[in-house]
Known about the structure:
Oligomer: heterodimer
Number of strands of chain A: 8
Number of helices of chain A: 14
Distance between the termini of chain B: 21 Å
Strand order of the largest sheet of chain A: 1-4-5-8
CATH topology of the largest domain in chain A: Butyryl-CoA Dehydrogenase, subunit A, domain 3
Strand content of chain A: 5-15%
Largest sheet of chain B: 4 strands, mixed
Radius of gyration of chain B: 20 Å
Distance between the termini of chain A: 50 Å
Largest sheet of chain A: 4 strands, mixed
CATH architecture of the largest domain in chain A: Up-down Bundle
Strand content of chain B: 15-25%
Order of helices and strands of chain B: HHHHHEEEEEEEEHEEHHHH
Number of helices of chain B: 10
Shape of chain B: globular
Amino acid sequence: MELADFKAAVDDWLDAHEGDLAPTFAGIGTLDEQMAQLRKVMRLTYDAGFMRMGWPARVGGLEGSNLLRAYLGETLTARDLVEPGIYSMPEVLAPTMIDYAPPELAAAMVPRLLRGEEIWCQGFSEPGTGSNLASLACRATRTDAGWRINGQKVWTSLAQYAQRCVLLTRTGTTASAHKGITALFVDMDSAGITVRPIETMHGAQEFCEVFFDDVVVPLDRVLGEVDRGWSIAMDLLPYERSTALWHRAAYLRRRLEQLVAASPPGTLDPVAVGQATELLWAFRARSRATQRRLAAGETLGAETSVDKVLVATAEQAVFDLVGEGLGVEVTLGDDPASQRWRAEFLYSRAATIYGGSAEIQRNIIARRLLELGADR
Amino acid sequence: MEATERVLFEGSVRHATSNADGAALDDAMEELGWRDALQADRAAAVSVLFECQGVTTTDSAALDWLLAGALGAPTDRTAVVLPSLRETSAPGRLDGGRCLVRGLASAALDRCDRVLVVIEGADGADGADGATVVGVEARQLERRRVHGLDQSLGLFEVAGEFELTVVASSRSTDWPSTLALGQLALGHQLVGSGRTMLEQARTHALERTQFGRPIGSFQAVRHRLAESLVALEAAAALLDAAWDDPSPVTAAMAKAFAGRSARTVARHCQQVLAGIGFTTEHPLHRSVRRTIVLDQLLGAGSVLTRTLGADILSSAALPAAFPL
């Protein structure tokens, strides 16, 4: 289906099913409510066919360009039907499965993810492994019974809801760094997994610690090749910095629009509003160009770090304005709308930290795009 | 323009701007058919040439050709009076039966016989409201060659006062749409200027050694250069998207953002180049000067941004967003 036809079809369908799709809660809701809303929207859009478009037929998709997925997420976010952060996780995890899982495993699992039947998480960071991902230590040892896993992950989004985890493990020596990492597809109900949610500053339990104590994972759950998991992580990160960011642009635009409508006269500086709008439009332009390159079959790489720096900068610029224009609501308000502005204002402070910090993105840009050589 | 055709075109324009400036660059543009390209694919012709002019700190009559064409006039040996520095309003106004002109002109004025002046608020010969463009003899305007901050750009300050009866031609025109094209052109030129500053600072960071290692190995330096690249790529993306629908609002946003980005790049690169970058023995100062002037030509970036913000606040609505 062409993009223009898809846009018309999906928007007609969303208009017609507005009541079925609408959230049942006011404001930001609890994370449980957001997850229930996400599952509902994904199931309905999957069953209507829209969620399957832009994905390959071998994982239950209906084929077509990635632009269809980009638009679906954009319009769902612009209509405030889903929270873009949790909605976009399949944009990161499904391509990894499609590219690296055994075909029958991908065929069985990806439809469950896209239909909202399952939530998946991404086990990358560890207590001692933040920006330096290649130093990860969560150990996987090959035994006759399967891979035996011992270690800990942290900042694992939605682990308490997840049925599966794309887990990076250490299979070589610690000194092997990026050469001794293996990616495994782990069932979260396996014996020996303990999940402990972490309460964040913005009042959600989105991130978790995950402990692995002698967890056994079948040998056929390796994604890609043993000891080659680093390339999976490297291929996955550009996905995290492409379609998901286009969805986020739609969210930021909606919130900026709502902010200028809701701010009392005189609370916002026209220069700051102009600068934030220009920056957000520039980020959208950049993200659109990235979507088009992806649609043209190009492989995304380090240049998506530019997109990531831009989204983080734009998000903080927009919410810096929220802190001014709706400073009273953010600081004192306890109604659902104010609680939501406050939570999102606080969450925006993390935009330069998660998903590869602002500093790591600049390191990547310096090394890979500007070719400045090693940094020591 | 097809992809392969565009690569060839870019190559020719890059070669021309690397080897010629001013009148010689006009000739080179004629030879490679830039004005035909402008007719065939305006976005490609403008973005390629103006970015190259920014990269090489050169200038030609292309801005005059672009604006004269947009005003529906013949472009040969024709200059277009630009608004005064930092301003966007048309350079001409009516005072009784007389036309008062005050503004700037590009260095190409020296090579032109005819000058186009847009007069705000006048009725055109065809009776329509809005702005009118009139053509006058170049010698009817007083001119002063500007030395100023960027002498090599060769701008003129122009002023004049004449009876409308001496006007050779007049017609109604849409000044904001014409201005928008000029703003996009200057936006690309600013990005090009930024790219040269970044390349100069990058080279210096690789070659200059302190504490026994290239300064480009220090994170403080790397992050300034990374920040510069982000600013330029974002500005280039916004300019490219603005060509979808070069409306006055999107063009002003793209130009202002390109100016702010180029000035960010100037600040970071001047710091990385440090002492040598503050001398005239290094070429950086040429791009820094050009950036500061271009950021204020056809509307100062800071003013455009403030206007955008004020319009958003008064209408409580955001500008149109280009679709996926």
